[in-house]
Design brief:
By secondary structure, the protein is an alpha/beta fold. The chain has two domains: 30 residues; 146 residues, Glutaredoxin (3-Layer(aba) Sandwich), CATH 3.40.30. It contains five helices and seven strands; from the N terminus they run H-E-E-E-H-E-H-E-H-E-E-H. Strands 2-1-5-4-3-6-7 form a seven-stranded mixed β-sheet. The radius of gyration is 20 Å and the shape is globular.
Length: 177
Amino acid sequence: MKKSLTILTIAALGLSAGFIANKMLNKPSVNPKKVETGTPEYAPAFSLKDLEDKLRHSKEWKGKVMMVNFWASWCPPCIREIPAFIKLQQDYKDKGLVIVGIAIDNKQNISDFTDPMDMNYPVLMAEKEGVPLAKAYGNRLGVLPYTVIIDRKGKIIYTHRSELTYEVAEKIIKPLL
């Protein structure tokens, strides 16, 4: 009986330690130096159309802190993070932040999604062309959402696969403003 209790206690401690280690390892990093291997040092230039079919160039945001977010209307984590991005743009636009959403989706789906959201930052249409662009920004796995934070000199400071929260993004962006 005592031996069984000891084994159960050890097993419970092992499971607890494994659970805690998993939580710690999967906790989002707020280290502004977090850049994936294979990510270019400086942000690649791009030109994409916005929802009004106006061609927009990445160079128009030169000198600003840029947060480039690759997303799609069919991606639940993408949808969940957009309200945080709207708030970030509202809170830090006057300090030099620009968020650029690059939708890997078709125009109709993007319009149907963005109109009721009242998005306050540029949304560009990339459709299938967005996948190689995201890869050029270091998204070697092709996951969505994928966010890149770029300093005023065009250097990639941070990359993030999966949903990004307001708090994590703010901790990285504030020192750059």
